[in-house]
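Weekly sync notes, structure subgroup
Attendees: PM, AL, DS (notes)

Item 1: joint prediction request from the bench team. They want all two components modeled as one assembly rather than separately. Inputs as received:
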Amino acid sequence: MTPVGVSTVPSTRPAAQGRSIQAYAARFFAPRLLHPGAWWAWAIGCAVVAARTTNLAILALVITVICYTVVSRRTQAPWALAFRLYVYLAILIVVLRVFFRMMFAPYGPTVILELPTLTGPGFLSAISLFGPVSAEALLGAVASALQLAAMVLAIGAANALANPKRLLAAVPGALYEWGTVVVIALSIFPQLAESLVRVGRARQLRAEAGRRRVHLIRNVAMPVLSDGLDRSLVLAGAMDSRGYGRSASMGNSGRWLTSVLLVTSSLALCVGAYGLLDTGFTPIWMGAPMIILGLMVGLVGLRLSGRRVMRTRYRPDSMKAPEWMVLATAAAACGGIIVLGMTTPEVAFPPIPPLTWPPISLFSLVVVVVLLLPALLAPKNRDGKGQNS
Amino acid sequence: MKPAWRADAPVPLEWKSVLMLVILSVAGLGMFAWPLIIPVSAESGLGDNSPLIFIALLPLLIFLVLAQISEKGMDTKALAILGVLSAINAVLRPLGAGTNGIELVFFLLILAGRVFGAGFGFVLGCTSLFASALLTAGVGPWMPFQMLASAWIGMGAGLLPHRLFGREIRGKAEIAMLIVYGIVAGYFFGIIMNLWFWPYLMGPAMGTGADLAYIPGGSFIENLKRFGIFTLITSTAVWDTGRAIINTILLALVGAPILAAFRRTLRKAAFNPEVEFVSDSR
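Output from the run, pasted for the record:
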């Protein structure tokens, strides 16, 4: 909680402290950064919705919602501006998918483009490339590509809206190191493009660019890889000097207990899963009770193992009403799309062979509108200031 | 270069971690191959959906193993290198995703497992598939299974022999060995992922000419035969062969320089060095 005597620190709270509805609304909408977990949950919700439908109209709406939310709620931080990269990647995915679909068996009833069929020689004659391209095959490719593109954009949105470095603080202690690895990977991903540009510039300075034969591997790929490896050692040095990745010693007995708990838990989970499936020969206690036992022992083990990571939190993120609202929209949209897939599969997964407009139901629109709510109701990000903590 | 159980490996594996890995591998194999070995009946605990429990259990088991591996604390250099290689794999993966079969992830995974050891290979398989799923490929029920399959491939590359008849395997012989391993790994990944979605894709056989679907509670041999035909027709001939060819070409072309770059990094990093105190008295 806020310590006593914070008068020297500029308060981030709004002036309204009362109990009236206006005061509550002022607190709710006061510009601040939301908990990163809330935005990630929302993004995963968008990705789940995209994964559970092949309806082009719904997918297009979800993509629109994602882009609108990013534009209206992102910060000025560098990772927020990297959303552009995700958009490029999404476009590339759509182009590649459609191209590969044209290459491999693009047959269907409605031919819109006649390409020559290439058949492999000799024993490869079973493989044929290109041929008459049908609208159905292309639409199917676009639908699956838009699913992927929407997922990419959703993750890009999470990166733009939430501070990726704050995520480090949210990973449970037992998986702290592996959470660090994933966060490093996610934040280095855009840097690789920058590394490629630097290697290109270095080649130009060495007057290599005009050469006829460019050895892609020796002149481009290997420098980027070596650059990445060297940078990783520099990063490790920086992390070491700031105390990342160091853990407190737990003593031998504590470590033994943790290991025994982890091993017991995984054994119990395995036995439980087998018992649940194979009811013919196994006693009843080998099923669900074993799974519950394994879960409980595992949680205690993870908890104990996390104790070795000693971290203090500077200005910890808290979950308040706006965060819960964002979480609720994500959960509602996930539930909604699953219900949509079960009740009206012809809307969620319209069959492609009849070449018609994708059907839209009122319920599917509700799912999309729920995903739009955070863009309208979540507090705005503070502009420019305090984004780097 | 260094066995994974040595304390100066990038990701050292203690015997407790090895025990957890064995449990995970046996359980994981069962979760991939349940249609063949577990006689699931309609009366079982959760009805027809019971295998879905694996989708929830496998990530948890992987978390438990990872928690045990990092239980002693990790070298930050290993974390940073893992992060960078996961990011590179995440870039490479969508370049090949369009054709499903030609995944560029494996050759880097194999080379990294070879140089940095089995523990590193296992973790890199998990983290690169997880990071690339977050970044590009999409998170789905298949993700934990892909993570485990590629973790096995990375770990296996770390377990390949370093000496044969007293001679070190280096140079062309090493690349040849890795290429053979890459071909095996390419087919292994295709077949085991097929085995995973086979029952979901085909559904249980209803006795109406569906010769490729599995028979719940059927004999091991009968189901294996059906799965063999299914995987041969749907993917082994084209996709898995494509993956094996791509692995071969990449390993032959860039295997040696990348191995050299990794070995240089390994030397520069000097993982968990043993500190020796020498008295200064003469």
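Discussion: Chain A touches chain B through 81 residues (CB under 8 Å).
Action: AL to compare against the crosslinking data before next sync.
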